[in-house]
Write a structure and sequence with these properties.
alpha+beta, seven-stranded mixed β-sheet, 35% helix
Amino acid sequence: MAAAEFVELEKEKDLYQVVPMGENHLDEVLAIESASFPTPWSRNAFLGELFDNQFAYYYVCLKEGRVVGYVGMWIILDEAHVTNIAIHPFFRGRKLGKLLLTEIMGRAVCLGADKITLEVRPSNKVARSLYRQLGFVAAGIRKGYYSDTREDAIVMWKHLFGVDKR
């Protein structure tokens, strides 16, 4: 990451706070989820992740106490997997996706992960551009991955220490 980008992200951190997601955030998370995805997760899906999945870590991005974005990941052994990420439509284009992903990559390293993976729709050009900018590379295709549209998923990986240990 270039020095100017780092300074810009640090400024964003002053305006926004990233904290663990709690049940008290779910109404706002669900509104963002519904505005972001054709088949949004349900309240029960998020509750299951928050309280029943020992591998799950979910965070919200707050501005003045309001949820403006969220991200989730699983940590299994030495691998982090981004389960979902979304930003409130009004707050898109403000580098909050980058802020959230940078934040969880750091947390993933602290939790023992040395690589991170995710799936993205080929049609989601904005997300794909962000992931490439952060050093993710395409590793394969999952055919018909998205059940709502049967759209394929591009599997993307990033080695958190910059070294491919495979």
